[in-house]
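$ ./design --mode recover --in tokens.txt
reading tokens...
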């Protein structure tokens, strides 16, 4: 048994404070684990936190979680589809404006099947403010807007390049695209839900 006569007063106070703190900690832990109740005393079950609250390392998120744009997710579905001049359906393949037309039609936005007309009806956005889902336009022929892709972030875009190639991702950092880049366009869509 401890002889408290030989223990100094400050040490006794410290031990007392420590004991009270431990007791309070156990009490709070019990309250934290107790079910939350509404005004009628009925336990309330809360849903789990969404992924963006759970995620500690955004670099390890899945592509669908990382993407801020449903348009980008939809466009990614057609990577690997063949280029087809005049094509705007998955069954036949896509050309550049046909791919854009088909993707936006999935969201209820009808577009012309023409890169130059898509450029005209879209809102000009400063390149530094480009967001995933915006359109990026190029002059391939030297006669005006002749190519379009869907921006996916990090200076990359998805497009249907040319005959004998497939829908894929290209980098705007490549000199070929830098020289031909003509602007960023943004289109509004009437509904956030994909129309089947």
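writing sequence...
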């Amino acid at each position: 048994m401890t002889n408290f006569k030989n223990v100094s007063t400050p040490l006794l106070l410290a031990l007392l404070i420590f004991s009270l703190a431990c007791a309070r900690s156990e009490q709070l832990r019990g309250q934290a684990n107790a079910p939350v109740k509404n005004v009628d005393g009925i336990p309330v079950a809360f849903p789990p936190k969404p992924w963006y609250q759970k995620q500690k390392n955004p670099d390890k998120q899945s592509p669908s979680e990382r993407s801020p744009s449903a348009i980008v997710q939809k466009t990614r579905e057609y990577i690997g589809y063949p280029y087809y001049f005049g094509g705007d359906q998955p069954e036949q393949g896509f050309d550049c404006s046909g791919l854009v037309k088909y993707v936006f039609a999935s969201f209820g936005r009808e577009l012309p099947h023409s890169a130059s007309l898509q450029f005209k009806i879209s809102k000009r956005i400063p390149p530094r403010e480009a967001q995933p889902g915006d359109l990026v336009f190029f002059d391939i022929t030297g006669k005006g807007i002749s190519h379009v892709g869907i921006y996916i972030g990090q200076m990359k875009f998805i497009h249907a390049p040319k005959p004998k190639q497939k829908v894929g991702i290209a980098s705007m950092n490549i000199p070929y695209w830098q020289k031909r880049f003509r602007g960023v366009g943004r289109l509004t869509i009437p509904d956030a839900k994909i129309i089947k």
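exit 0
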